[in-house]
Amino acid sequence: MKLQTKIMFSVVLFLIIPFCFTFYLIDKPMEKTIEQKIGKSNQEALHITQLNLQEAVGEMMSLTTSISLDESLIRILKQPDQFSVYERLRAADQTLSKMFSIYLHRWEYSISILDEQGHLYSSLNNQKTSDAWLSFYDNYTRTEGTRDRFQWVYHENPWFAPSKGPFISLVKSINDFETNRRAGVVVMTASSSEFLHLFSELEGEVLILDDQGKVLVHPDRAMLGKDLSSESYVGRILSGTSGQLVDETAENKERMIISYATVSKTGWKLIQRIPYNSVFKEIFKLREINITIVGVIFVVFLLITYSIAYGVTRPLKLLRRKMLHIEKGSLNSPIQVRGSDEVAALMMSYNQMIVQIKELIENVKYEHQQKEHLRFKALQAQIKPHFVLNTLNNIKWMAYMRQDHEVGEMISDLALMMEASIGRGEDQIPLSMELGYIQSYVHLQKIKYNEKVSLVIDVPEKLLSVSIIKFSLQPLVENSIYHGIEPLDGKGLIEVKAWAEHQQLFIQVADNGIGIKSEKVLEIQESLQLPDPPADSLHVGLLNVHHRIRHQFGAAYGLSLTSSENEGTRILITIPYAKEEADLDAESINRRR
């Protein structure tokens, strides 16, 4: 068999047939995978809506709880006969107005309060008690266990709502603190259509069922109040917490992808139903297009393979041998080109490729160096001296009020800081110089905060000559003052310590400020693990110092942070330490003295 025939036979046997067979085998699993991916995406979107719904429900529960604990309202409800009608209505109106001003309302709702003697206080215009209200109150108070819990009530067309139903009400008992007896109830009512605003970002059909399978919220008003507990999928949903399934609905026998989640505060089921065919219609169409395209590609590929197989086979050994030289790292093996056919053009391309690879390697080396240099400069440029404006304002107003030598000291310290920020192009400076910068900075801040800030430096003399990255301590001290000490009730202390061990230099900046919340500490620690500082980070000073150290000394060095609320914050800098160089620098400093 000729080599050309072998190539064609191999292409058909080892490429086309296996591909077609594989495509046939993975078609259904792929469809299942897509279904799972879509279900996962729907579940994530549903989870966000679930959180929003829980937050909204929680707001309603918080509002009714706050009303039920209002002492002035309880006093009115407990002894209404001791107050005039005007006084009762005015007290109830003040309570409702106060609650409306405190809570952020997601939608419109009404609040009604009923005491034991049948007096009604409502956010609506209607303040008149009716038999329906008294019947509603009696039904609620007779229900076992309603004294200290919330009760959700569904109304088709309630008599007390401002418009036609359906509505959902939250009922909470109001108890007397002294006697622990019921003084009345508070009823918060919202239209079920208001919940639909939370579903605007979700695809398909979204509804809410209560814990018995009854429809509480649905875009189709005809479905409201309908009992769906007989549906096969509803039973599985009511017994579960969250998940995704594929089932048919009894309404139209259509196959649906159903995602659901539980509203923990109420036990409601938030359900999203998407027609299966509408999801996969485009996928099936794309599958047909892909099969057609692949078939055309195979035909063209066979034709091209047949046309070039013979001309390629003879020089393949030479080309392979030269390629082996490249694999071993030799780029000095050009091929002598003979002829003008496609293979000759391939060999010419091979020779040009060697030249381009050499150029690209050099370009990559140069670009890498430039990139690292620019990245380091960009990190330096991101450090903004936010304190300059505040300090200048302090100097300006102090100069207006009086003439004092402290103004001169402030200007001197400010000049030192500005001179340090301008610098002479150096990236590293002695630790003693960096400590001088932060002393000047703290001196400026002490004038601003009336000696509220104190700085203690505990650094052995032999470490003062060690080189560190310029402006690596000032941003940390600035963070300690503005985020730790400024909100502190009392005097703040910043302690800077340094020590060396195991060929490493450790510099610790600690304060006794208000500390950082645990979730914020975790966020900062995660940011410190990233290869580059996030562009939108709120901790640009801290992260830039960390990444400047890592770019200068390697990934093994940088910053670490520990903090607890009301216990201060500690930031530890770790950099390399060469004891011999430090000793020589220290000796030279002593000789100059």
TrEMBL record:
<keyword id="KW-0547">Nucleotide-binding</keyword>
<feature type="domain" description="HAMP">
    <location>
        <begin position="310"/>
        <end position="362"/>
    </location>
</feature>
<keyword id="KW-0597">Phosphoprotein</keyword>
<dbReference type="Pfam" id="PF00672">
    <property type="entry name" value="HAMP"/>
</dbReference>
<keyword id="KW-0812">Transmembrane</keyword>
<dbReference type="InterPro" id="IPR003594">
    <property type="entry name" value="HATPase_dom"/>
</dbReference>
<feature type="transmembrane region" description="Helical">
    <location>
        <begin position="7"/>
        <end position="26"/>
    </location>
</feature>
<dbReference type="GO" id="GO:0004673">
    <property type="term" value="F:protein histidine kinase activity"/>
</dbReference>
<keyword id="KW-1133">Transmembrane helix</keyword>
<keyword id="KW-0472">Membrane</keyword>
<dbReference type="Pfam" id="PF06580">
    <property type="entry name" value="His_kinase"/>
</dbReference>
<dbReference type="Pfam" id="PF02518">
    <property type="entry name" value="HATPase_c"/>
</dbReference>
<keyword id="KW-0418">Kinase</keyword>
<dbReference type="InterPro" id="IPR033479">
    <property type="entry name" value="dCache_1"/>
</dbReference>
<dbReference type="Pfam" id="PF02743">
    <property type="entry name" value="dCache_1"/>
</dbReference>
<keyword id="KW-0902">Two-component regulatory system</keyword>
<keyword id="KW-1003">Cell membrane</keyword>
<dbReference type="InterPro" id="IPR003660">
    <property type="entry name" value="HAMP_dom"/>
</dbReference>
<dbReference type="InterPro" id="IPR036890">
    <property type="entry name" value="HATPase_C_sf"/>
</dbReference>
<dbReference type="InterPro" id="IPR010559">
    <property type="entry name" value="Sig_transdc_His_kin_internal"/>
</dbReference>
<keyword id="KW-0067">ATP-binding</keyword>
<keyword id="KW-0808">Transferase</keyword>
<dbReference type="InterPro" id="IPR050640">
    <property type="entry name" value="Bact_2-comp_sensor_kinase"/>
</dbReference>
<feature type="transmembrane region" description="Helical">
    <location>
        <begin position="291"/>
        <end position="313"/>
    </location>
</feature>
<protein>
    <submittedName>
        <fullName>Two-component system sensor histidine kinase YesM</fullName>
        <ecNumber>2.7.13.3</ecNumber>
    </submittedName>
</protein>
